[in-house]
Amino acid sequence: MANTMQKSPLAPACFPKLPIVDGVTFATIAAGVRYSGRTDVMLAKLITGTSIAGVFTKSTTRAAPVLDCQAKLGGDSTTPAAILVNSGNANAFTGKNGQTSVTAICDAVADACDVPVNRVFTSSTGVIGEPLAHDRIIENLETLNNTQSVDDVEAAANAIMTTDTYAKGSAKNVQIDGQSVQIVGIAKGSGMIAPDMATMLVYIFTDAVFEQTALQQLVSDTSDRTFNCITVDSDTSTSDSLLMAATGASGVNAQDNVDFTAALHKLMLDLSQQVVRDGEGATKLVEITLTGAVDDSVARIHAMAIANSPLVKTAIAGEDPNWGRIVMAIGKSGAPADRDLISISFGDVNVATEGWVNPNYVEADAAALMKKQEIEITVDLGMGTGTATVWTCDLTHGYIEINADYRS
Amino acid sequence: MANTMQKSPLAPACFPKLPIVDGVTFATIAAGVRYSGRTDVMLAKLITGTSIAGVFTKSTTRAAPVLDCQAKLGGDSTTPAAILVNSGNANAFTGKNGQTSVTAICDAVADACDVPVNRVFTSSTGVIGEPLAHDRIIENLETLNNTQSVDDVEAAANAIMTTDTYAKGSAKNVQIDGQSVQIVGIAKGSGMIAPDMATMLVYIFTDAVFEQTALQQLVSDTSDRTFNCITVDSDTSTSDSLLMAATGASGVNAQDNVDFTAALHKLMLDLSQQVVRDGEGATKLVEITLTGAVDDSVARIHAMAIANSPLVKTAIAGEDPNWGRIVMAIGKSGAPADRDLISISFGDVNVATEGWVNPNYVEADAAALMKKQEIEITVDLGMGTGTATVWTCDLTHGYIEINADYRS
Q1: Is A225 in the same domain as A104?
Q2: Has the ipTM of the complex gone over 0.90?
Q3: Range of the domain at B232
Q4: Does residue B317 form part of some domain?
């Protein structure tokens, strides 16, 4: 289970150095929710005036903490706020006990931190269907409140992991009118990854000033181009949640600022790709770019069909430039495609053009590219101007080992 | 590649004894299309008056032989007919060469067998994207025509295999007004199985009398409850084809006969389950029954979401009664479901009821059931009367070995 797997070969060399974000502090603890010998709860406290936005799983069986967060977004922001996350137990499919645990935790956090209960956001991640031992969390809240630190974000990234083989963080600095604002994000996620909104658990903090509605729009739009464009196994979690908090402590308004928007996009892309790099059993990161579709939404359907195909993903694991399976994946969704117009490249090697193998194609060239850790597949449908780029990983024995041998 | 894999542990004990169907004869040959040392082409000849119906892949990248068959269905049946099938090469995504090969083969079969070219139906199965060496087939047609036999259907079932670990056949005898009619079917299929119509390659023969339009309706309806309810890996082939030929040689009209319809359903269910039993790497056959959905189509969406989920399939491989992953799979499609009404059983063990674990559930009971080769999962959504039953297999290291290590 957690932390016992070997680190993904696609992991970044090290956890990045994350700067302090004014207005937010962190603490973590080993509460023994399910795991022993590791931290499993993190509490982030946010100053008065912090705007909080979020995107969440669209699963119809989503967990109680997700429903609770969704109900609280957009409320009054003239008070402090708190985010509490536990790993080890998702508090999902726990019947009425689900909301009971959420209410108990939120009430206790509100008391311990002197924050209104409607400004307490919680997430739970881990096993589905088992009751959450919320008392183990509640009995540690006083300690969590008393040990808050501005620079414990790396500890927070570690505390929220489940089957992750490494903690995920990213940071950007943006200059706005000669003033500096920080954006820092952490994420967890490794399996059950085919988000249909945000994904897994992601927390992003900035000291920039945002109104909540503007922040919400920015987060939704950017998620759609980052976290919503990744897949590990086509399975969608019941708990996916992304929260972004803008403390405003810098006094710098970043609303509609193009540099901030671009920096946030890069940060979210970085975190989403870190999730794919930690895909269960992954040995290859695969970027799939679809062009020439009748529109962008069709491009995305085809790109995700390729990214989710077990036969494409096993071919990549086998370092086999098996473009026939890509043709199969394009065909299966039923979205518009013309077999005889399709062109497919691996990296800069064009393997197929106008519906058949390129006469100049030398398989050894593509086979050499397939040995790399990062693979680029480009498919042109030759029908229009629609494009999409998505990210996935290969499907290996490691995925089977993790998911057939452990209860996650 | 073909025939080198160990036989599936779920395989029937032996190939069934198939009766002769009056009006159809078979021959097979080792033409060396791609494989060596095994038969890879079969030719079936059908008498004058044979009605032929079919269902085919809906893939937008479907292969030239599929398009050719679809164009020929419903034509004049007052002549003899022929079905030619090769394994080893799917003649799919071969550009204009695809139709060139089909035309060459159909013309040559028409000549060799004295059959109109519009009554020659062909299928090709195997590797995608490589040109079909149709000359190797054509040069064997005279031999195939001269060695026809009424009882070579088992040889035909062997000749059409690719990654199959065993040949698939089934037969039913129906008594109609004191007279006997035979139905005999053969199939191939093992991976790239998520048919959206028929599946893989299936050929069914009967000596009953049918008008073509009635036969087509019967075949379409029955496919929808059998082959369209199975999945191995959610990937849909570019070549899936099912042809049914009613020779009429018995002189017994079976149109609208309930016993014939029931027998055909059983035969097609048997063949479709044989395909799942030969699912690449399969060690468990899983029957998923969904009840209580708002309608049948929603029941099917949920049942297929469960059947296609890599996390559900790996849990089954691990003999883990992980009902949390079933809840996840129900949630991900977005089709109507109410988390707190869901009930889940493995075999006769109810593990969850009304959105949470059954208070009387003892995991050891479900764990014991999971050790069986055939697993039944029943999910009730508690919302209506819609039902569906689908079949799948587990996802194991064997699937990865077959698909990451071989070009198929």
Answers
A1: yes
A2: no
A3: 24-277
A4: yes
β-pair partners for A106: none
User: What pTM did the predictor assign?
Assistant: 0.82
Report if residue A339 sits inside a domain: yes
Mean pLDDT of A13-30: 94
Residue A196 has pLDDT above 50, yes or no: no
User: Among B238, B310, B337, whose Cβ lies nearest the Cβ of A331?
Assistant: B238
Same-domain check for residues A232 and A290? no
Same-domain status, A106 and A157: yes
Q: Helix or strand or coil: residue B59? A: coil
Catalytic-role residue among B199, B226, B236, B247: B199
Domain identity same for A184 and A289? no
- Chain B residues in contact with A367 (beta carbon < 8 A): none
CATH of residue B200: 3.60.70.12
Catalytic residue chosen out of the listed positions A122, A199, A226, A291:
A199
Min Cα distance A400 → chain B (Å) is: 6
Residues 6 or more apart from B126 whose CB is under 8 A from it? Answer: B33, B34, B86, B87, B88, B89, B90, B162, B408
Phi, psi (rounded to 5 degrees) for B232? -105, -50
With 80 as the cut, is the pLDDT of residue A173 above it?
A: yes
Give pLDDT < 70 ranges for chain B: 1-5, 191-199, 406-408
Q: Is B153 helix (H, G, I), strand (E, B) or coil?
A: helix
Mutate to test the interface with B, among A320, A332, A361 (most CBs of B within 10 A): A332
Q: For residue A194, what pLDDT is reported? A: 56
Residue, of A162 and A20, whose pLDDT is higher: A20
Sequence-ordered alpha helix ranges (H) in B206-338: 212-225, 258-277, 296-308, 310-317, 323-332
- List pLDDT tens digits, range B51-78: 999 888 878 888 899 999 999 998 888 9
Stated length of chain A: 408
Mean pLDDT of A142-170: 93
Residues B51 and B111 reside in one and the same domain: yes
User: Which chain A positions have a beta carbon within 8 Å of B340's beta carbon?
Assistant: 95-96
Is the residue at A336 inside a domain?
Answer: yes
